[in-house]
Amino acid sequence: MLLKILIALVFLSMVTSLAAGAGFLLRDDSQSRRLLVSLKVRVALAATLLGLLFYGFYVDGLAG
Asked: Which residues cross the membrane (predicted)?
């Protein structure tokens, strides 16, 4: 159950980072680095989400 909660939290964090990045794209000037930081956070969250999903499938395969 904890794994499902972690996956949901990481996914919601990715959506939040995506929305923040869209806001930074529309509001900030061209010299701002906030959009780049938002993209880096989103990539790290995506890698974390993939790792959690692979771990979940691996553990489920061992149990079944």
From this structure: 6-27, 39-58
